[in-house]
Design goal:
Blueprint: E1 4-9, H1 14-22, E2 28-29, E3 40-49, E4 56-59, H2 64-73, E5 79-85, E6 91-94, E7 103-109, E8 112-116, E9 119-123, E10 127-132, E11 137-139, E12 146-152
Antiparallel strand pairs: 1-10, 2-3, 3-4, 3-5, 5-12, 6-11, 7-10, 7-12, 8-9, 8-11
Amino acid sequence: MNLIETIGYVRTDLQSLHDWTNHQFGMRSMSSSRVAFDRTHKWFGYEVILLKPNAKIKKGHWDARVNRLGDRILPGWNCALLCHYRPGVGMKPHYDHPVFEPLVGLVNIGYATFRVGNQEHQLEDGQVIKFDSSILHELLPVVSERWSLSFRRIKSQ
């Protein structure tokens, strides 16, 4: 059984998506993270400050492109995270914060090796996947610049 599902590819707008990522301002680092080192990020919809045990939720950025993609990839999404990884940067094995529903829809921009459970997946440029973030997962250090745009739903309080 595959632990990730490819649900499609961004093909016709892939170059404009690359251009859009390279023109994002306000990217921040998550210096307190024990999982993601040297990664920068930007929240859309709602921003979630990942404190344990309770996360802090506030208004994030708004972008028409993000809204259109999210509505197609994960209907009902309310939180999107754009991440930038330079060569040599990845994410350690982790489970996502319990403030989120487990299902994640992700647009991979660049190339990466993504491990969910004991399965490694080679992600292609423009590949769109869904996976269960309550299963241990990690991003192996990338060889070239990589972006991801992940869509989530915040659990009802």
